[in-house]
Design a protein that fits this description.
Number of domains: 1
Shape: globular
CATH topology: Rossmann fold
Radius of gyration: 21 Å
Strand content: 15-25%
Bound molecules: adenosine-5'-diphosphate, magnesium ion
Helix content: 25-40%
Strand order of the largest sheet: 6-7-8-3-9-10-12-11
Order of helices and strands: EEEHEEHEHHHHHEHEHEEHHHEEH
Structural class: alpha/beta
Length: about 325
Amino acid sequence: MLLEVHDLRVEFHTRDGIAHAVNGVSLAVEAGETLAVLGESGSGKSVTAQAVMGILDMPPGRITGGEVLFQGRDLLKLTERERRKLRGAEMAMIFQDALSSLNPVLTVGDQLGEMFIVHRGMSRRQARVKAVELMDRVRIPAAKERAGDYPHQFSGGMRQRIMIAMALALEPSLIIADEPTTALDVTVQAQVMDLLAELRRELDMGLILITHDLGVVADVADRIAVMYAGRIVETAPVYEIYKAPAHPYTRGLLDSIPRLDQKGRQLYAIKGLPPNLLDIPPGCAFNPRCPRARDVCRTDVPPLFEVTGDRRSACYFWKETLDGHHHGG
Ligand code: ADP
Ligand code: MG
């Protein structure tokens, strides 16, 4: 297994109290596999990614438990120096906002080239050749000429391609993309997502794709992990989730995206708001918003029940949820 996260816990000490951002997350990604991590804003997706990458702000953040095994090594036990060596070379991250992640005063060619100079000891000239190759690879037109341009001279979609190029430069075995297309318009989103999926296949990398948009993951992900209030509430192969969710929250997410195969159907919005992480409701955190909630849901935290061999749901009523969907109810 490329990456295995076991029971990861992260909290933030704030003036108003302790925000429980990640509350026992476990997940795994194999080489060549794409795991989509899905959930509304504030569910702990980015914090999980930051803890895995070793870029969490500490303080105010604090990892209070768990393991992050990367190729068998527990990253949480490494020194900052060792972690820095892994970043870029072995695991890389793509962020939502390319403009604030790229250096505004360096040309794109120099920025990409820098990776090869610093990590591979190449000359400036060799590095420029590699930079242009990378720009070609992420399909930036007229790469050679454009290598001399600055980030702000590119469109949002092109900048996102440059970020992907940066992440791919050293051919890491794991990429974490945190809402990589959220800031783009819909057609550009699809192009960037397709590119990412294609490169992932070519390079046989593991990819964690974080998104709040279930619509974008259908074609690119192998598995989905749905997060709510810092926990994974359902995990399954993509096609199974689309066929029938086994958690009412996943159901709500699915029902709130437009689907081509269900034209004319009323779009649905999950009622209520995500919980305040300073004060997560007792029992199942989703219970105040859940159409299926019963007494047990308000008192006991549901474990991840095994639905099938590779599917889990943290709902006491996963069976009814599955059946309800099959019957169209
Ligand atoms: P998302 O699922 O939208 O990526 P995040 O992982 O960014 O959510 O954040 C989850 C929660 O963690 C936030 O709602 C907030 O309560 C807390 N949090 C994240 N970063 C910080 C921070 N730097 N300081 C305090 N709290 C934070
Ligand atoms: Mg986020």
